[in-house]
Amino acid sequence: VNDYGDYEYVGNITIGSPGQSFIVVLDTGSANLWVPSTNCEYVLNFLLQYNSSVPNFSTFSRSCNQKHKFVTSMSSTFVRTNRRWRIQYGSGDARGQFGKDIVRFGGDDENQLIVPRTTFGLATHISADFKEDPTDGILGLGFTSLAEGGVEPPLVNAINQGLLDQPIFTVWMAHRGEQEGVYGGVFTYGALDTKNCGPVIAYEPLTSATYFQFRMKSIGAGTFKSKASYEVISDTGTSFIGGPKSVTDRLAKAVGAKYLRDEESYEIPCKAKPVPIDIYIGANKYSIKPVNYIVNYQLHFNPSQAGDNTCLFAVFPMDGGAFGPAWILGDPFIRQYCNIHDMKAERMGFAIERIEKEDHARPAQSFSHHHDNKAYIPYDKLFDAREVEYATKIEIGTPPQEFTVALSTRFGVLAIPHPYCLGWCEGKKRFYFINSLTYSAGSYPWSMSVAGENVSGIVGNDTVTLGKVSLRRLKTLTSCQTMQIGGTGEKRLHVPSATIQGVGMDRFRSGVNSEAVSDIGIWIRGPECSVSELAQIAGAEVAFAGG
């Protein structure tokens, strides 16, 4: 793994036969592999068909110009598919088509993990946020439930094929300061990294096997210690540590950092010697030393002023979900402690870095670099928890695509993310209408206001299956709906021609709330129904989700 100023860590992979080389972000905060395709410069933006306010994405397509691109005709093992994908990150997005081929973790001169029959994305568009980044694409290392399109992530594929000695991987990241393009860490697949990491301090069970998400009891610095516990994720793809502003402000004050409103970040003198940041997980306290949370940002954004003694406090304010992660433990935490990802046991382990006397640093390829510290942040809040009380399962389309949805009497529509949805849709399932035999497109757009923000998209029609509702309750549910519902069996209710509103056009600001317990933002309302009546209708098949 190469380090760029303690700001981004990148690795090498090859795809195809013979192998084509790519530089990728090794990202535990996502679960898809994608690289640019040779068509990347020429794709027109789909959203322009529906919303003239969307910026001209033809400028975005030029983001592919300096990237390595996968040439399908040069690989004898490539298999084309007709499935499309789109991924929205905290900053930037990418989209294209899926394909299958051999993927090799590591460069040609390294000990490679070879994974046949791996599904990966061929990007036909990457947004301008990635243009100056030294990487070609992203290798997501998360769980299948996090993967766009429900595809099997490359590492999960390797585990399922029995290619690893153990279903684990270890991440060690080194502190390299202002050096760029130097050897900066190791991702060890299938084993503990005993060379760079000491004994495991403790394991913490995951609370959600989507991200590597677990519970943090508290966080503090100096005399400050938070009183609340939080859901957190470990994320190699996030440069800094993110959390609620009310707490990050207190941390900044404790270490002597100052908030820059225009930059939405904290500034600290480069030569400051503040107290450590203390993170409490399980029965243990994990302290992050200042050397790992003070970063020279001028090196990345304004090299001419890199010596002015102004650095960044590598913590940023963010809005997390009411039921999802409130904190992201990014690279500063991982530089301090090796992270062991046990995918079978669904747990995280932490180990102290083993300090070696030898200098690991060695030259690597040189690239220009810019990376937004907000990239890969999951913004998954749409509703305040007080407005979402029940969640259940529905299916849409033929063959059916399953979603977890919130039931709300506040809105009168069924709205799901379009494949090209932006903003809060990150981490949510999308409705791939192209895969449904019964889908018919509507002829008009729609929009509505949610929490003061405009949401808009296009209208379509398809079959909807609502949970496991018994036939005797069919009449009650029908009376609560604004649309005609017809039953086709004892166990499920089908809506053969339901109107589906695809959320797809507007970006949400980070302050807008979303409901993390749901795969998607959905509102189902009949004017005569209360939440309690909906609960009685769906019975045990509706799960309490907050409030």
Briefly say what this structure is:
By secondary structure, the protein is mainly β.
In words, what does this structure look like?
The structure is a single chain. With 547 residues, the protein is mainly β. The model is unreliable at 2-7, 42-61, 356-390, 468-495 and 501-547 (pLDDT under 50). It is globular and about 60 Å long. The chain folds into three domains: 2-164, Cathepsin D, subunit A, domain 1; 173-353, Acid Proteases (Cathepsin D, subunit A, domain 1, Beta Barrel); 385-544, Beta Barrel (Cathepsin D, subunit A, domain 1). A hairpin with a 5-residue loop joins β34 and β35 (493-503). The chain contains seven helices and 36 strands. Its main location: secreted. Keywords: Aspartyl protease, Disulfide bond, Glycoprotein, Hydrolase, Protease, Secreted, Signal, Zymogen. GO terms for molecular function: aspartic-type endopeptidase activity. InterPro entries: Aspartic_peptidase_A1, Aspartic_peptidase_AS, Pepsin-like_dom, PEPTIDASE_A1, Peptidase_aspartic_dom_sf.
**Unreliable runs:** 2-7, 42-61, 356-390, 468-495, 501-547
Distance between the termini: 44 Å
Class computed from helices, strands and strand pairing:
mainly beta
Q: Report the sheet with the most strands, covering strand number, pairing sense and barrel closure.
A: 8 strands, mixed
Give Rg in angstroms: 24 Å
**Large-scale geometry:** globular
Tally of separate domains: 3
Beta-strand content: 35-45%
> Can you tell me the CATH superfamily of the largest domain?
Acid Proteases
Helix content: under 10%
CATH third-tier fold name of the largest domain? Cathepsin D, subunit A, domain 1
In the CATH scheme, the class of the largest domain would be Mainly Beta
The number of helical runs is 7
CATH architecture of the largest domain: Beta Barrel
Mean pLDDT: 72
DSSP summary, beta strand count: 36
